[in-house]
Amino acid sequence: MDGHILSGTRELKQATMLERGARAASGFASLGIGEDGAVAMVLRNDFAFFEAAIGASLVGAYAVPVNWHFKADEAGYIVRDCGAKAVVVHADLLPQIKDGIPADVSIFVVPTPPEVRDAYGIDAAACAVPPGATAWDDWVARQPVWTEPPRATRSNMIYTSGTTGRPKGVRREPAGPELQAVATERLAYVFGVRPGTGVRTVVTGPIYHSAPNAYALAAARDGELVVLQPRFDSEELLRLIEQHRITHLHMVPTMFVRLLKLPPEVRRKYDLSSLQFVVHAAAPCPPDVKRQMIEWWGPVINEYYGGTETGAVVFHSSEEALKKPGTVGRPVPGGTVKIFDVAGKELGPGEIGEVYLKLDGFPDFTYNRMDDKRREVDRQGLVTCGDVGYVDEDGYLFLCDRVRDMVISGGVNIYPAEIEAVLIGMPGVQDCAVFGIPDDEYGESLAAYVEPQEGAELTTDAVRTFLRERTAGYKVPKLIKFEHGLPREDSGKIFKRKLRAPYWEKAGRQI
């Protein structure tokens, strides 16, 4: 069966996707976009994302996904920084970014589809291509099919989240056929997506993010079926798995937590026996959450670790997860992991330091227009994603926290992720975030923001008691707040930086 993509009631066959991508390539070339050029995409999960990315790749340009939450200044910065000569944007998102787009950049507007409109509660009138704008579908249809040989492949240029200052574009070197084949095999190893194996998947995460982006493009190229979920919904995902006999998924631990919070009768309602290979990444998964998912879905849960800069360097299976609770795995073939202290000394088994990674055969990168920032993350040819962790005596990597999230209270290093992994298991807790805030006596103290489940009644004393019974006393947060609707990234992860920043601004200092 030929591959195809589904979104709501709409279908795009793989052959049509490739043809439209080839037409887009001709159109991009007519705008002067060629090797090392760029096409920006401000899109939710939709067909146009694949078409534009293919078109950019064929002419040797970088496809640049832009976080669709961005407003004019934020989106405009990325368009200018990457040098894009074209922007492809959903109709309802155009008003929020158009004032930031340079006048000499061509803008192509995609009608916002009904399934996206319904998922986000968008006004129907805002979903149509506005008068005077260039409609993407019409423009692509007018272009001839690109017939020139494809250029050296440039992977999509993903902009990092920008925890400090502006986001940085990860500009990877072009890859010829041989290097591209190696990179494709590396992705297949961790994603489980290989041509001719009948892969059927649901893309649950936003494809402007690095990992869902790479996964979605690989599945669209080599899979049998890709179902686009416009916005993650726990029960809807279970329904899609049963309906379409889904075999593969790419997820994040937050999704696992939400799935496990579903009532038992809902979880038992759907047939999930088609699942063969589920992989997750993006954040450490609490061991108890991983164990419960394996008990529910079977030994199909896998995990990898890496970053936009490094690729997926570490991987492990369900069996290894149960044997080594809390690990993110061991290096894949061609992968290297080393731990260094702040002075640059390489550390041994069990010693905690900053994690550095390398994947042989993966094209090197720099930060677009920021070579100095690239040098800052390099040590002995390895690159750090900013995580703290250790390798055990068997070579398994364990993460403690992000470097920037580690709290030093009274000279003691505290890793909030460890506390969050415990707190998420408390009955009535939907989600939580633990972070450091200023403390006159200790330098920093712990704060916890807890999002209760609907109808749950939680108290500060109950949270502290729960934690004291399971962790050391110094890990119990001094400040505990309960809030519904915590700020989130589109992947579902809590925007911890937004919670933390006001406390440090009030104190007149930053961390």
Automatic annotation (TrEMBL):
Location of the AMP-binding enzyme C-terminal domain: 418-493
Region (Disordered): 155-174
Comp. bias intervals (Polar residues): 155-164
GO MF terms, alphabetically ordered: CoA-ligase activity
Tree of life domain: Bacteria
Domain AMP-dependent synthetase/ligase: 17-358
Alphabetical list of PROSITE patterns matching this protein: AMP_BINDING (PS00455)
SUPFAM superfamilies in the record: Acetyl-CoA synthetase-like
NCBIfam families, per the entry: PRK12406.1
UniProt protein name: AMP-binding protein
